[in-house]
Write a sequence for this structure.
């Protein structure tokens, strides 16, 4: 937890059910140790989606479809989500979950590596007014230029897990060796988000740390 555990528990205790299907999907995901967004991050994502009223959303990291379905709850009727996942075991589960929620029609699941799909989407000239980045943390920095190409001015990029359970403030040497590369890449990513001319970025310490960046030019 990044902020005081009692505050986090309290914030989570305020959260309301998003319906039986999402409750079940959440429970199944947690039972299977699928790293879905936390309750307070889900509320944040829904709130941003409701406020922005996007017409096209891109998600990098579908897992079993939980966060995509959270956005579906509040996005405009005509909005579509394109979501990318490369882990084969999760693809049929995500598909099934979209079906269970009656959202197969509004969600397109792209199977395979985000690297490949981001290039394809750019080639096709696709544009997204909301992007949710929630996949391999070590890749965020590499994907950023491609993601920016897919965002028109005014579009918003939300990135999850940017504070690494608080590890981000530790010195590189206090972080477990296997996490060091990700640790420095995430610091570079945050630096980049704050120093890229086209972006205005806020770092928010909820869940596992979230950033919101809007493309201002
Ligand atoms: N957004 C989901 C959780 C995503 S977990 C939710 O909150 O419900 C991160 C997912 O990103 C994992 O399922 C992982 O397989 C996927 N992933 C990691 N690297 C990827 C890559 N290079 N291309 C596509 N998917 C990737
Ligand atoms: Mg996440």
């Amino acid at each position: 937890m990044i902020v005081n555990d009692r505050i986090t528990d309290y914030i989570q205790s305020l959260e309301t059910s998003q319906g039986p299907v999402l409750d079940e999907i959440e429970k199944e995901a947690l039972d299977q140790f699928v790293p879905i967004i936390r309750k307070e991050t889900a509320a944040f994502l829904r709130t941003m989606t409701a406020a922005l009223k996007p017409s096209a959303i891109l998600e990098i990291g579908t897992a079993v479809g939980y966060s995509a379905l959270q956005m579906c709850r509040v996005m405009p009727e005509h909005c579509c989500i394109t979501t990318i996942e490369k882990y084969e075991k999760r693809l049929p589960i995500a598909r099934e979950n979209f079906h269970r929620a009656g959202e197969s029609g509004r969600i397109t699941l792209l199977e395979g590596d985000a690297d490949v799909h981001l290039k394809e989407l750019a080639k096709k000239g696709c544009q997204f007014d909301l992007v949710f980045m929630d996949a391999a943390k070590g890749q965020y920095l590499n994907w950023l230029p491609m993601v920016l190409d897919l965002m028109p001015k005014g579009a918003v990029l939300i990135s999850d897990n940017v504070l690494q359970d608080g590890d981000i403030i530790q010195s590189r040497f206090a972080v477990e060796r296997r996490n060091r590369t990700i640790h420095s890449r995430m610091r570079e990513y945050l630096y980049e988000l704050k120093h890229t001319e086209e972006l205005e970025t806020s770092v928010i310490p909820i869940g596992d740390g979230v950033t919101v960046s809007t493309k201002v030019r």
